[in-house]
Automatic annotation (TrEMBL):
The chain crosses the membrane at residues 14-34, 63-83, 104-124, 136-158. This is DUF1648 domain-containing protein. Residues 25-70 form the DUF1648 domain. The keyword Transmembrane helix applies. It comes from the Bacteria. Keywords: Membrane, Transmembrane, Transmembrane helix. Pfam families: DUF1648.
């Protein structure tokens, strides 16, 4: 890692667009959460099983946990995105370093924004379940979420090998 070149790379427009979508969605979720908080019951879903059914109920204060964790994760990954020279690469050379760094930065960007959107969805769904408008996350939630994350990582790993 010490001998990996440090190259100043500008963030691609696509990454900026993803950041904007994630930030707007997160802000909208917070506005919705604060506006609906008083009308929510005292008990809200605290955890779901693998089938997407509620298996623990908790205090409605817990609705703030996921947005806080999501924001902290997003900020951490935002900072990490700025240091692609610290990532591990399979085939990094002086010749392909810039392309590899762009790929690594974009992967970090896509993953961080997928994560914050996931936390937004779960928080929104917790509110819907608590209000009686939904029964859980649904049986397809876990496979879809895991499939999305693994597909994202796979796409960028394939790109890394090809570069």
């Amino acid at each position: 890692m010490n001998n990996q070149p440090k190259i100043d790379i500008t963030k691609p427009r696509f990454a900026l667009l993803l950041d904007a979508i994630a930030i707007i969605t997160f802000a909208a979720l917070l506005i919705y959460l604060f506006s609906q908080y008083g009308s929510l019951p005292d008990r809200v879903p605290g955890h779901y099983n693998g089938a997407g059914k509620v298996d623990r109920w908790g205090s409605k204060v817990e609705l703030f946990f996921l947005p806080i964790i999501g924001a902290a994760l997003w900020i951490f990954m935002f900072v990490m995105e700025k240091f692609p020279h610290t990532y591990n690469y399979l085939n990094l050379t002086e010749k392909n370093a810039e392309a590899q760094y762009r790929n690594g930065m974009l992967m970090m960007n896509v993953l961080k924004n997928e994560m914050i959107l996931l936390f937004c969805f779960i928080t929104y769904q917790n509110m819907q379940v608590a209000s009686g408008n939904a029964e859980g996350l649904g049986t397809g939630f876990m496979p879809i979420f895991l499939g999305l994350i693994f597909a994202t990582i796979s796409v960028f790993m394939v790109r890394m090998v090809r570069l």
